[in-house]
Fold these 2 entries.
Entry 1:
Amino acid sequence: MGGMALTFLLCSPAALGQGKSGAAHAQKLPTGMSITPEAARGSKLQYLNPDLPGMPEYLADHPIATALSPNGNTLLVLTSGYNRISDIKAKSVPELSNEYVFVYDVRQNPPAKLQVLQIANSYMGIAWAPDGGKFFVSGGMDDNVHIFDWNGDHWLESLPPIPLEHKSGLGINDEEGTSESKNKSVAAGLAVSADGKRLIVANNANDSVSLIDLTQRKVIGEVDLRPGKGEPGGAYPYGVAFKGNDRAFVSCQRDREIVVLNLNGTPGIIGRIKTRGQPGKMILNSAQNILFAVADNSDSAVIVDTVKNRILTEIKTTAPAAMLARQPNFKGANPTGLALSPDERTLYVTNGGTNSIAVIHLDHESDEGHVVGLIPTAWYPNAISVSHDGRSLYVVNAKSNAGPNPGGCRNNFARSGDRPCALAQQYVWQLEKGALTVIPTPGPEELKSLTLLVGNNNHFSMASQRPVDNGIFTFLHSRIHHVIYIVKENRTYDQVLGDLEKGNGDPRLNLFPDALAPNHHEIARRFVTLDNFYDSGEVSGNGWNWSTAARATDFVERTIPMNYADRGLGYDVEGVNRGINVGATRPEDRIHGKLENPDDQLPGNGDVGAPDGPEEDETGAGFLWDSALRAHLTVRNYGFFSNLAHYSSTTLGGPAVPLLHDPAAAGVRVAFPTNPRLQDITDPYFRSFDMRFADYWRFKEWEREFDEYVKRDNLPNLELLRICHDHFGNFSEAQDGVNTVETMMADNDYALGLVLEKIAHSKYGKDTLIFVIEDDAQNGADHVDAHRSIALVAGPYVKHGAVVSQYFTTVSMLRTIEDVLGIKPLGLNDAFQLPMAAVFSAREAAWTYTARIPAILHTTQLPLPAPNSTAQVQSSIPAHEATYWAEKTKGFDFSTEDKLDSDSFNLVLWNGLKGEGTPYPSGRDGRNLSKHRRSLLRDLRKSKN
């Protein structure tokens, strides 16, 4: 068994087992970190099986909240994630695509699952009535609150749910017309008054709270949390805490404040407590004079005096201070949940970003505290409860490693038993599963060893931020003065390089062979074949954060799975919040479409999804370009973080920016940055994501500026370049005849080759490195892992003809760029990971490259060299015309990346390129196919003949 096969076995959910020693089974994550889920002595992990009819193996994902009953006997676990089941046509099956409340009896260990309650949608909110006779669940985008009562035998929903009666959420609607197209209202955190008579719920998408009379079962008041008059405040309310019967606290994430409400008489705002980070879940101590809140982006637990409504202290949750003494400021711990010990002397905080629980000792007054240790968990812990005797911690985690996704017929759903399975629920969000772990509270000695284990899992033991073998990077930094960082879209390793004559590729899963992607193949062949590289993000929604910041905030990790499941939450990433370009400096760039009271909708430049930089005054400035600018390097942006609304007249509410081959010549601006620091360093004539537009023309605009830089001898130190046509789409509207999957892939491939050729034959060929990555790998199959993708590196000092199978990730590549340029890391992940030293050699100074022209591009109207060019690679015409692809993707939304149903799109790609009805290869074995490549490829060719 090869090394990668072993990696899969250790990473698959089934291999985790229950009750086994996690310390002996460390699992590598696509973030580059490791987890040891059951390392604590006596820990027991169990996955969340909702017992769906006909699907006994199905497991739920993304548990987000836990709630322990007042008597301590019953634990509730609420999911808020993807949780979609696909039918044979890759369409979601509504009756099987729900969220869940798992009910456990925790008087025994492991807990006994008593019931699984299904609700259509939810978002974080779950709370018990004070007497324990009922509990409440927020209905997410259904804009309601569910009530469950104990009938003496089991829990039963008291119907109907209480409606909150919002017409829609705030922001710019994606489309005009039907009510279904409007932004959804989303019910989030909720809390019950001490007397059990009233409930308050945060309206996450409406910047308000609703007050409910539980006796009347109706809303009796609503408070708008925004200050109005164009002032920031009150946006994205999430957590709620009820103090007694007349006070409430609401955490508002975008504007980083805890809003204090008076609920006596007419409800109203009586205070705003500003926080450095984005406040999330909150709890009160028993006396209710102290409020505890987790704060993402400051990686802290905030302690608030609820009498004076002021912050007493903030405690860093990442690790004991001594463990990170040399690197105290890097962020990325992502605190997600919290709970108090029964004696209220210990605060437990789940760190989603470091897969751990911070154990915080509180002083007698609870106004000070410090981390005394860490407990390892499974991947991305979201919530924690503590048993009434303090002996057990109940922790839920959001994700598990995905493993291979070839589409084998396992865990499938089909309406008819005699039909072959089309998909096997192997979309990346379907493969990552949540779990509940019971961890016996460790004693002091065990806590010490567990703390060291967490440090090892997260590489905190690295002596400094510089690599151990820094010789090669000292060398590179002295010679390389420019980096071109190219981010592409959504392809797996097997999809593109599965047919390569070397490396661990599965040719059965290859959709874009050498003929369609000759430059991808030649770059991997000539320089370094990286066949064990993983995209850290699952999809573009969090993949672009990982690709530009080496991490995703908790807000992004929490909301994106629900967005992709169409559960109401927005695509609030890449500088756009609720469809609004919050990073714009000109009002005309910021406000588009029809907005009610536009001045009161997200005023200011706060970006709810943006990571902070290392220092305290670097709000939202945790991206790669921020670090380069802080180091006084020059940066130029081509297509990163752009407002795509300008390309659609429907979304824009006016004429769309025209499709022009040469907008610079026409003086027409086509780029509208969504990040404040990108405003002045973005090429205004470079068109960002638009599937109607060929990457060839993106290259030509990049080339126009490059030629000027050559003349002036001022090429920027860092260039961010987006070529995105390997996403595919908009087939009926695509220009220049680049309107099929094959021609779009070839166009993307040729543009990539042209960039390398241009640099190689210029004065900058001697001191420029090119790094190429996919932001995610969700739109394709891979026999090793759903995160495995292509990564390419070219330029001087890159090894020639090498296969490097070392485990690398998106974070590894960003760390490599940082070390080459000599800039500081962005956060915890890249600060404590080694760069890709194995890719480079000081002896490989000379290099050259000439772009290959995929012959299929000659079926288009792109202005290419003559077909007899020696650089051409022969290929057949497309398997289908544009009309085929347009018909198969009718109704798909290609206006931004991943706005479509990715499951269905993957099936369309497979059937269109492999043939209708061709089954996916079955079996998820993760075999190492790097051996005997010649015979493997020969046998596959014979089987096709």
Note: The two ends are 30 Å apart (CA to CA).
Entry 2:
Amino acid sequence: MSAPFMNEESLRPADVCTFGPFQLHPRERRLERDGHVVRIGSRALEILLALTERAGEVMTKEELIARVWPDVAVEESGLRVHIAGLRKAIGDGQEGVRYVANVPGRGYTFIARVSRAEAPATAAPRDAHRNHDLPSRFDRIIGRDAAIREISEELVSRRFVSIVGPGGMGKTTVAVAVAHAMLSEFADDVHFVDLGSLTDPRHVPLCVASALGLSVHADDIVARLIVFLEERRPLLVLDSCEHVMDAIAPLAERLSGHVAGVHILATSRETLRVEGEHVYRMMPLEAPPEGDAVTAEEALTFPAVQLFVERATAGGAPVLLTDVDAPAVADMCRRLDGIALAIEFAAGRVGAFGIRGTASLLENRFKLLWHGRRTALPRHRTLRALLDWSHDLLNDVERRILRRLSIFVGFFSLDAVAAIADDVDGEQAVQTLSSLEEKSLVSTDAGGDEGARYRLLDTVRDYAQAKLQEANEHDAVSRLHATYMCMTLERENRAISSGRATSLGQYLANVRVALNWSFTGRGCSKLGTRLAAAATPMFMESSLLTECRQWGEIALAALDDADRGTRLEMTLRAALAVAAMFTNGNSPDVHSGLTRALELAEAVDDPHEQLRLLGALHILGTRTADLRDALVVAKRSLEVSKRLADPVARTVAGWMLGTTLHLLGDPEGAEQHCQASDDPFSVSKSAAMFQFGFDHRIRTLVVIARTRWLLGYPEEALHVANRTIRQAAELGQPTTVAISLVWMSSVFVWRGDFDAAAEVIERLVKHAEKHSLGPYYTVGLALQAELAVKRGDVTVVEALRRNMEILHEGRHELLQTVFATAAAEGLAGAGQYERALSTIDLALEMTDRNGRASFDLPEILRVKGSLLVSKPEPDEAEGERWLLEALDGSRRQKALGWELRAATTMARHWASRGRVTEARDLLGAVYRRFTQGFQTADLLAAKALLSKW
């Protein structure tokens, strides 16, 4: 802050001080060199005025500080900085010319000859401009071009703009860039007021006056400022307002409201909240979103990555970003919240630790101590200093709430704030949250139907967690946090049971933190078991089945005697069994776990839970091909659903029955039950899910697509299959997606569209591998081998058989008949007819467990008959008997799709034996019953045969 160098009354307007090639105009506060204005800072100019006024005399450091910074505590180092700036501006010491000398232990003296004269009445200098005293502008500012443009436009139209955002976001950098960009607009009447160094808010008006070149001693400095500015159109840049808010806010409001020509640009970590202010929120630098690995080319389109690479290179570690390192850099930029200063700090470590090493350092709080540029403001030299600056401005309650909020990972709600506030009144906690948000320590997301959400930036959270540990509050707040998460999940689970859609994935990160604390030595295992049970629907919804198993096992082991035989045990056992079924296979432990859970559901008389558990037992029965047991479970589900005043429950139970009938070879009955009440496409996704990691609605659509093909409607089957795959993908639940891909691949295979089938199966394999769905991965490999056989590649038979063995070990039996049939065809293609016949007999034996009933039984019979009539020494009579049985089986099932295949095989055999008329009559009668799908493989083959006869 500058001060008057003499009373206004003592000034002689025409005085000009001349030294060397310089002319100093005290009244105009202007320094010229050979008629050209010299750019010089306002404080450096004040020092020059003081020294030239007493040229030849020694001015002590104390005198200079008192003269230039009256009533402000300034370190001697601050004086040295501005002396250095003065020497640079006038070229002191260059080419042997000296103007200012340091007198050791005393102060400074102006040693050059100074002459005074009355200024001639001449025109202003050729390039006369006011001294705007702006800090230097960065040569290149990354990612802020739009912000600079928008703020500049707003300043012209609205006059008063505040740039608001967290520390280190680049507010000052942008403000300085705007100021430089607006010099012409304001005819160089642009003034930068650095409030960051002020320690006493009472000095704010003096600081502003000094920056404007106004020497005042009046009591009401603001009134004097208003008079001084009323004929001008200046731009005032008020930088770092947050710590002097009570003083700068009324000053800015008065200047803006009373002086029409004044334009104000403020920077602050919170809004000034005054009349006329328009807020520009400084957003983080954009970084690549989370998800699939980003390439170097893609990453470099984001400003955060551009800044990282540029600052790393400037720090002596030239970075040629590669596709290997790009994901690590992208992740660092995200974890540093796109904060420019934090990214600069991280980039500065690359020279010493490399990209990977720097990324690993982000795992701990040492990053808070990383140093930036030596020339930076003290509060910008480390992240800790940056955050200390904000933290020191908080009151006790704000500090308490801030450190407690650090227990949350990601977003949290107002309810969450109240839950961890504990000894702080709920209303006061909400007001404190609002205050922290205004101070840019808490970020806000407007959200959707759920209302506003809040979060701490990662850097702020790390800092606040350290404060939480220092206050010895971590365990107490962790207990509050775990209790809140448990109650929240229990409430959300009740909402789902009542049919209200909600997404549980939003709680995942916080639940993990709470579970980890609960099961540590300092935690509460009883609370942990309750939380683990409440979290099972969330893990299922996200298909985090391995994690669900892990927490279920820990919770069951920690279950005390009082909780055994209760709903809590029921929930944990059910979740553990279902998770094991989808990840490891269909072991007896899965069945016993579900059975025990069902017994507990019956003991507590909860029909909703009974229906959910019956649904899990049903899918287990279909996976193990225990279809008669699955049929019993489905019928039992129908009885349980009648106890519920929920039409969706009865619909889902009907779907279970329809699915079973399809697998048992009754496509017509299956369709009747699957479409008896509601169109599966119209039933809400959440209502049909029942929280056990799969969607009964998608299972039902799978059945409808397959039965459409079996009943002779291949085009309708294709339509439903494509729609089912799309809807499963939209649902995004990994297990449900896998179910859709497994069963819909068959529709494409049956149609003979092998390219489409290959694409669907490839998606299945990658999807199952990505989500650790072991059985589905093996099924995918087996489906690929089956398809290869269909395409004539018989070399894959052994691989197919190996995958069949793996599935059998996991009691995954449902598709074994399909794979055995394909293996038999492959063996026959390789000329191994005896092995082929024994393999097809194995497929028939597999259907015996369900009373020789299976959706693919006619196809198994057809393949056996085909093998018998086509082997090197054909058994024609026996072969024809099996083919006729295939035809009869198709007709009993009313499966026109299988009947066409059996008729085509029989007709081809008869025609080869000269029985053309019988062949034509048999195949023609079946062919004519079709009304669609004439471009599918089976119908094209039949048409080609008929055209020969």
Note: The first strand starts at residue 15 and ends at 19.
